Amino acid sequence: KNLKLDEPDRSKKQADCCGAGGGRMWMEEKADQRVNVMRTEQCLEKKPDIIASSCPFCRIMISSGINEKGLAEKVATMDVMEIVAENLA
Q1: What residues pair up with 50 in beta bridges, in sequence order?
Q2: pLDDT tens for the chain, residues 1 to 89
Q3: Exposure string (b/e) for 54-73, b if CB count within 10 Å is 16 or more?
Q4: pLDDT confidence of residue 44
Q5: Are 79 and 57 spatial neighbours (Cβ–Cβ below 8 Å)?
Q6: How far is residue 69's CA from residue 72's CA, in Å, rounded to a whole number?
Q7: Contact, 8 vs 45, CB < 8 A?
Q8: What is the C-alpha separation between 56 and 8, in angstroms, rounded?
Q9: What CA–CA distance (Å, rounded) separates 66 from 64?
Q10: Residue 40 has what DSSP assignment?
């Protein structure tokens, strides 16, 4: 497969944490302030087919954001190692 890596503008040291590891996964937030949707929107700016993460919490939060936006049929969320495994010779 021909894969192209295109990171969100806010990545590495400037990345926004999805917050799930700190318990945000279980917190009720105002709909216009949901950190998972904000982070998902940042990722979607790059128009990906797949959003990959090595953090299981981020994967859950971004997957939730994708579902909330009704894009589950268009954008996959995967662990980086899933992509590696799929592309082994």
Answers
A1: 76
A2: 677 888 888 777 777 666 666 666 666 666 666 778 888 999 999 999 999 998 888 898 899 999 999 999 999 999 999 999 988 86
A3: eeebbbbbbbbbbeeeeeee
A4: 96
A5: no
A6: 8
A7: yes
A8: 18
A9: 5
A10: H
Q: Which residues lie closer than 8 Å to 64 by C-beta, 6 or more apart?
A: 36
> In what helix (H) or strand (E) does residue 52 lie, and over which residues does it extend?
strand 50-53
What token pair was written down for 85? 């495994």
Q: Provide the greatest CA pair distance for the chain.
A: 46
DSSP state of 59: H
Reported for 25-30, long-range contacts at CB under 8 A and 24+ positions apart, including other chains, are 25/57, 25/60, 25/61
